[in-house]
Amino acid sequence: MLRFTPLLFAAALLAQPAQAAVTYTWQQVAASSSMPANLNLELRFSDEAVKQGSLSLDIDNQCHFGGSCEVQQNSLISLRYWYGSPGAYGGDNLIDYRYSSKPNGFYDRIVLDLSFLPGGLLSGSLLASNGSSDFVMSSVGSLFTMERADSDEEGGCGFAYPDCSGSTGRLVEVPEPSSAALAGLGLFAAWFARRRKGAAQA
Fold first, then answer.
1. Whose CA, among 1, 46, 78, 141, lies 20 to 30 Å from 175?
2. Chain centroid to CA 21: how far?
3. What pLDDT, in 10s, does the model give residues 88-139?
4. Gap between the Cα atoms of 167 and 34, Å rounded
5. Where are the beta strands (DSSP E) in 51-154?
6. What are phi and psi of 46, to 5 degrees?
7. How far apart are CA 164 and CA 162, in angstroms?
8. Interatomic CA distance for residues 72 and 132, integer angstroms
9. Residue 86's Cα: distance from chain center in Å?
10. What is the C-alpha to C-alpha distance for residues 88 and 92, in angstroms, rounded to an integer?
11. ∠ CA 132-134-138, rounded to 5°
C-alpha cells in the first residue's frame, strides 16, 4: 500500500482546482498610542470580485435575532479582525465573518466600498461589526486610517483603550500557491513513485 501513496498524493494535487480566493492582510505603517499595538486584519475575496476592480457591499445578517440567515453574496469570502501577537489567530476584539456560515457573534454587519489597486493594494472604506466588536477605517490612496474601534472585550478597544483610533497601514495582497506550483508537486510525486517502483524491481 505504501508504494501507492505517492501516486495517490500526486493525483490529489493534480485534481485540486485553482485557488479561488485572494487574501489581503494589514501591514501597519504607524501605531497610535490610543490603540493596542498588534492590530490584525485579514480579508479574503473571490477571484471574480478582484478582477472586477472594485467592490461595494452592504451585509446585514441578523440570523441570531430571528432574521434571515441567507447568504446574499459570495464576493467577500471572509473577514477576520483581532488584536494579539502578529500572525496569531485569537485575541481581543475578534470578528470572524465567513459568508457561508451563520454569525458567531450577535450578527454580521459589514459595509465596504473598496477598489483593488495595481501592486496588490486596496483603497476605500470599511465598516465591520459582530455585535460585540466593531471598527471603521478609510483610506487616502492606499493608506488606511482606523477612524474608530470599539469592543466589549476587556483587553482592547473600549476598555484599556477607550479612545481607539489613529493607527495607519495598508491592506496588501498575500501571494498564494498557484495551480502551476501544485501541479509541479504532483508531477514530482509521480516521478518519485516511478523511481521507487523501478528500484524495487531491480
1. 141
2. 9
3. 555 778 899 999 988 988 899 999 999 999 999 999 999 999 999 999 999 9
4. 8
5. 54-61, 76-83, 92-98, 108-117, 121-129, 133-140, 143-151
6. -70, 155
7. 6
8. 22
9. 14
10. 11
11. 175
Helix (H) or strand (E) holding 174: strand 168-174
Match 484599556 to its residue by C-alpha cell.
160
Name the grid cell of 13. 494535487
> All 3 cell numbers of residue 154?
476587556
Cell of 10: 500526486
Amino acid, res. 201: Q
* C-alpha separations of 90 from 79, 82, 147, 159 in Å: 13, 7, 23, 18
Residue 105, Cα to own-chain centre: how many angstroms?
18
Q: Among 29-38, 48-57, 176-185, which is the least confidently predicted range? A: 176-185
